[in-house]
Amino acid sequence: MWRLKVSERSSSPWLRSLNNLLGRQEWVFDPDLGTPEERAQVDKARRDFAEHRFERKHSSDLLMRIQVCPMHVF
């Protein structure tokens, strides 16, 4: 599943910012996050995409909808 990683101040000289990294976020994939049912649903969506990626147009936010709205069936 995906989790949102929000930036923190860094003492690294390679990472500089004028606003202390305000508003910098990234989505990080964590394979151990979520229930086994949710992980199975995500794996099925990924397999479905890989098998049919040249045949049909896929929803780009399907993984987000699976994680944010777990009570719906997609």
TrEMBL record:
Transmembrane region(s): none
GO-annotated cellular components: lipid droplet
GO molecular function, one term: intramolecular transferase activity
InterPro entries: Squalene_cyclase
A biological process term (GO) from this entry: triterpenoid biosynthetic process
Protein name from the UniProt record: Cycloartenol synthase
